[in-house]
Amino acid sequence: MNRRFSLRSVGALALAAAGLPGAAAQEALPPISIAAEERRPAAAKTAKNVDETTAGPVRGYQAFTARVARMAAPLKELPLSVIVVPRKLIDDQNAVSQAEAFRNVSNLTPLDPLFPGGLGVKLRGMDAERYIDGLPNYFDFGVRDLLVNVERVEVLKGPANILFQGGGSPVGGVVNVVSKLPTPDRFAEVGVRAGGYRYGSPYVDINQPLNDAKTLLFRFTGQFETTHSNIDTIHRQSYTLDPTLTITNNEGTSLSLQGHVTRRLQQDYPGLPAIGSVDRSFYSIRRTAFLANPGLPVTSTESQAVTARFDHAFDETFSTFTSARYGVSKIHEPSQLIFGNEPTAIDFAPFGVYGGPSQFYVANDILDDKVTEFSITSNFVAKFDYGPTKNRLLVGGDFSRITDHGVMAGNNATDLDPVFGAFGLSQLIDFRTPFVPPFRLPVEGAPDTVVYTKVNNSYQNAGASVQLQSTIFDRLHFLGALRVATVDMHFTEQAVTPWKHYDASAMRVLPRVGATYDVTDWLSVYGGYSEGLRGVSYFSGPNDAPPKPEGSRQFEGGVKLDGLFGLSGTLAYFDLTRTNVPTSASGSVTQTQTGEQNAHGFEADLVWQPTQNLSFLGSFAHTDAKVTRDENLQLVNARLAGTPIDSGRFWGHYAFDGALQGWSFGAGFYAASSSRVELGRTWTTPGYITFDADLAYKHEYFTFSIAAKNLGDRHYYIQYPYLAGRVAPGEGRTFFATVSVKM
Questions:
Q1: Whole-prediction pTM
Q2: How high is the pLDDT of residue 39?
């Protein structure tokens, strides 16, 4: 569970204990991990229709390798599900955000761009994490949606305990955003995108060798975004600045230094409660309503990080690489919280009922959090042949430490109720005609302020890994790995007297094993098993007992295609289990780690490129994600929130030649069935389908494109992960125009 959600959960539990409505649910807990990957020195043309990018070779929408094994490995040989979204697909779709690009991958549910951060995406029904260049971006504060610095997106599904290093392992998987790197060729691109909701976004991408020998390379990308929203009042401004310097001898040794500076400003959007939106039995809320005061101060979230990567090849057999990152991220979040998905109604006989069918309790809330992170991983690789086998052996070690200082406090958004004020209850707000008073900043020590939580935590993990990739008789591909992982958690709660403190640590050997067999040159079958371990950032155990790390395990098998009439991709069946989940019995705020969740289902991620000009992408997922064990028996067999049972994406693109050379057209759709809004409740968002299209003209020196999103202007809701769960309306029909100049 991320810090932002855990702090808010503590506040919700505190208010619930005081007699106010709240919701308790099983909570996703945070991964703590680091990673490493091989880099490529430059972009170049290789075989016909294949581009050699800084992230690896691609042919249109098909990537041939990925870095998820910390060594660039052919995707068709890996006994696991790895999906790559190349830059060409992002550009052809004229994607506006990373969240939009993520929808190309089956069973990947992105975080809505309205959400300020602190939560991750969902993969296979479980919480996952967005990494940057193989290293974690803890809590994901700052700007997470701008695309100017994205070379590609690599998605590893399931526990990532070894392939992405770290004692903590995201249960659902890792979405690794790979940054652009310098190349030996000089170029520059300047562009701007404008569109609906007063959207405007200038960007720049400059690549410049700094000497004639091209051993000193520099690249800078930057993007600014300003936009309003389909939600009343909301206005977002954000920027990202990403300079990179690479020093190389062009003979196997290189050092890259990457800077990353981001900031985002937007009012906190609390979503809409289920009753009044997806459930209109008693009343209805306007879809675009902002259920807070229009003058609510903006939330600011920012991140700054420096990443260093050193690669050295001793010879054709032995090599080494080391990655390290130091980063600081912050959030300052004033908000007006709506507690509960259903209206307040408490019987205070003989005084009457406090509340009504459309009345909600609202609190002023302030969250301040600062996270400092240091991660380093170092690896040694040996490549060798032995008899009929071709082998790559990796031995590595890593260390990661995160410190987290956060405080959350609140006060009533309204005055005391004239009838029930004697019980300390404030006036409720009627959402049929909502008016929320101006925000009053909660101040620690003030008589009207409650400090829900004030933490000083640290999470540390370290480990050593050994990994062997072998190809036997050029047809059987084996992957085996072991990791000795240690997790240390230090938790201090300063909002109580005396302070609550615990230390917890654990060590475990984590395996990953799998094999792929090439039935033909274009058809392979694979199977694999993996385990994960991750720390718990918040736990309210009996008698202040410390938590145990969460565990995860996954069985996966399927089919891989590569080359038949231009068809490539993965068909997979998976069974993923999360263990040691903190749970609470009904009506209790004390947790035990006896919970278990399971997700299983089928996925398809396919690319068909029958010609150089014509490309198709299709993805589909069917997922059954449920609680399988819980102290609250009412939650057993309950669907997990936020993941549709069925979802899919289709996209087709054609690039004209002849007299229309330079013109291209693409169109597609995204469809999803209903999603559960809140764990243990029956509210669901209805299924929906949206269509989009893009028309572009590309010249050697400039590009112009027009994109349409949600062409049918479909009104729909998505699950919005605020507190225990809310809903948010999807954007209506929107048009964007993009112009760029290349130099």
A1: 0.91
A2: 42
